[in-house]
Amino acid sequence: MFPNRVVLFFVLFFSLNSFLTAQNADFVRNSLLQKSRQATKYFREQDFEKSLLLSREVLKKALLINDSVLIAASYNTIGSNYNEFSEFDKSIEYYKKALFYANKTTNDSLKFKVNNNLGNLYCFEKGQYELGIKHYKKAIFHSQNISNHTYTLLTSLNLTWAYFDKSNFEEGLLFLNYCNANFKEYGSDALSVVYQMVNGIYSSHIGDYKKARVFFEKAILLGYKYNELNDVSYAHNEFSKMLFRMGNYKEAYIHLNKFNEIKDKIYNEDKLFKASIAGLNLELDEYKRELTKIELIKEAQNQNLRKSKIIVILFVIVLFVLLMLIFTLIRNNSFKRKVNRELTIANNDLLLAKEKAEEASQMKSQFVSTISHELRTPLYGVIGITNMLIDEYKDLSKSQHLSSLKFSARYLLSLVNDILQINKIEENRVVLESMTFNIYDEIEMIIRSLSFLSQNNKNKVELLVDPKIPEYVIGDKLRFSQIIMNLVSNALKFTKNGIISIHVVLEKKEGKINHIGFKIKDTGVGIAAVDQDKIFDKFVQVGRNDTDYQGTGLGLSIVKRLLHLFGSEITLESAIGQGTIFSFSIPFESDLDKTNDLINNIRVDLSTSQIFKVLVVEDNRINQLVTKKIMEKNLYKCCVVDDGYEALKILETEIFDIILMDINMPLLNGFETTRLIRNKNISTPIIALTAFDKEEISEEAISAGMNDIIIKPFDQSKLFKAMSTLIYDAKNVG
Ligand code: ADP
Predict the structure, then answer these.
(1) Helices 108-120 and 88-102: angle between axes, nearest 10 degrees
(2) Which of 494, 561, 571 best tests ligand 1's pocket when mutated (most atoms within 8 Å of CB)?
(3) Whose CA is nearest to atom 14 of ligand 1?
(4) Which of 9, 136, 211, 466 lies in disulfide reach of 119, CB 3.0 to 4.6 Å?
(5) Nearest atom within ligand 1 for CA of residue 555
(6) How does residue 17 score in pLDDT terms, banded at 50, 70 and 90?
(7) pLDDT band (50, 70, 90) for residue 609
(8) What is the pLDDT of residue 19?
């Protein structure tokens, strides 16, 4: 009737009891515990219906309070009941559930029992030894955890029998040895039949039939004594197998018969039992459905719980992300606002700084131009009067003092001009102009104008111009001359008893563009390598000797900047005592048509024996004197007035060929006076004679009605050329 080899359910309740009592004194649990205990009791008394009903009730409540120990215990009892009905698959299913819940607990005793029950089912009912042995081994592991040797012995016996059943005597022997060593201490009457029998099986296997016989006979004796009929039947069977192998067929037959007899008896009892529970089975179906329903509800609840947990977690995550986002947004926003504020402040500061810088720059320009104007005006007087003195008193021309005075005045003038020039270049106010000129003539003129310097230092100047260079080129003649003038005058200043050679070659021609190379070479003092970069900086003078020469230290700086405007770079080769070579290349346009036009338009002779009347409008007495002298020396009839009003007055009664008009005058300035003159329909040519820079006033001068501008102190030939051209044009038009 009990197909499982070693019945284990009797110990279930007691360990459960001790565990729960230790865990909880809680009333509900205690009452559930009582009921669980009662279910086990019903099972033992074979009142399966009551056992199942009570287990179901306990399980229902245990599931509600989520008590894994009680759930596992209930499932275990249910599994055991099914085992009794030989519904092994169902039984395994419930044992597995029991194991699932038992594994959630720390209750090794519970885990041991469920594993042992599963081992029994797999090995001896389902024939799945591998699986069964795995559960037995787990059971042993849990029994050792709680040092329960009785449990260990029980499962070891089961394992030995399982290994022997599948003829693995080697493994089985390990567990048999354990049983033999511990049976005396931990064994029991109920287990003694199986214990003797497995020993019999092993002795029979190793051929020790005598010993085996003793074991089998003892097993049978004890089996009958303790009424372990099922075990006795197996003992008869195993004994019979051995006798059969020994050839003792008669005795073997007797034991086989005994085995069959007991089996039949058990079978009949089983049949009766099954018939008795047939009705119960019908109810059980209903019960099973209920149980499944409970589990489904529980599962659904769990799922809902899981779902709501996930939803809550997701919600928390989304909320967190949202909060982070809002936080970042707020932070970014405030950061942006802060940066914006700072930027606005910085911007305002920058605007203010820019305005200040512009103001400062404007003030600087204004300052430079005013200072130059203010300096040029008296310089005009000084130079003019010095010239007058030399003219009037020929003896004085040899005076050292006078020549020093003239030199100083010229130096001062060149300094003012240089500063003005560099200031203009730095402020990008210089725009190159296009004029047609002959390179040879221009350089030749410069050399001539510097002849004084050449003679002083006893230098010879050579000029070699490539004949391939066009007769006339187009470019800014004035700026070009300035470059050559500076370089040649430097060469002359820093060379004594030497040779200055100026070489001009046509390097290449690209359409109308002639790349013309210039080399200004001297045999003078030379420039040390360390100084070669410095000398192009402003106000840099190397090894200056005051007695030798006076320079402003601006010459090369102006040269370099002017060459930049031409799109060129200056290079320098020099060594101390070896002389110096400055080289550069300028692209000049050549236009034959323009050249021809120009040549055709050259006036053959502007000079005339006629005496012209000039009106000089000038407030500065000294300058009045100087200009008057110059005019008269050049055979102009000169009338000088102090201011604009006087000019307007005299023009009412007198006719002049030309008017030289100062700009900076009190009461009525040069522009206003000109405007008033033009308003009176007087078309006499007017030349602005001023210490202002030409570019600065040209626009206003033209709009006021002036015809030309000459800067004081002026080159006399330039002034007279301009005067005669204007007079000639006026007369021709008139
Ligand atoms: P400066 O008005 O003093 O001539 P520059 O800018 O023209 O100013 O020249 C700067 C310095 O370069 C000069 O003081 C001189 O020492 C050096 N230098 C320029 N040209 C020559 C040269 N041909 N030979 C030797 N030294 C020169």
Answers:
(1) 160
(2) 494
(3) 541
(4) 136
(5) 7
(6) very low
(7) low
(8) 44
